[in-house]
Design brief:
about 15% strand; globular; three-stranded parallel β-sheet; alpha/beta; single chain; about 40% helix
């Protein structure tokens, strides 16, 4: 990953949250937005690990920060995971993703989601398509959202 790709991924994640990519909203979201902080340090780890000079200087700091937010927020997404632009974590807590998973553009993850490798005849990683929302676990049958449907199904935006 080169710097332009890294910058594009970081700003596309910001755009999904704030709706713009200017410096002040970036700084505000980086300081106060927990899920975006996790995205930022995950992308920074991914970028800095691929460059020899940054692997010695920036990568250790980014890895420590990513580890800190992994435990603080309950999100476990390794930096080796292939995640395309516009990644959005709706609610933190209980999110576990395998390093071999691939997540497409504009994908939302909610709390209580686990994306793991299939242990079947084929051991290929889970692939999520573009514009997919992956909600957390289903509520009880008596618990319905205010629109009358359960939140369990995977919805694909049009």
């Amino acid at each position: 990953m080169n710097y332009l790709e890294y910058r594009f991924l970081v700003l596309s994640d910001l755009y999904r949250i704030r709706g713009n990519t200017r410096f002040l909203p970036f700084l505000r979201t980086l300081i106060f937005g927990d899920a975006y902080r996790y995205n930022f340090w995950m992308r920074t780890c991914q970028f800095s690990f691929g460059h020899p000079a940054l692997r010695v200087t920036l990568y250790p700091l980014a890895w420590i920060m990513l580890r800190h937010y992994t435990y603080k927020l309950g999100i476990s997404i390794p930096y080796q995971t292939q995640i395309e632009s516009g990644f959005y974590i709706a609610h933190s807590g209980g999110i576990v993703v395998n390093a071999n998973s691939r997540i497409g553009k504009n994908c939302n993850l909610s709390h209580g989601v686990t994306l793991e490798r299939e242990v079947a005849a084929e051991t290929r990683a889970i692939q999520r398509s573009e514009k997919t929302s992956i909600p957390g676990p289903a509520p009880n049958s008596s618990e319905r959202s205010r629109w009358g449907t359960t939140r369990r199904s995977v919805r694909t935006a049009s």
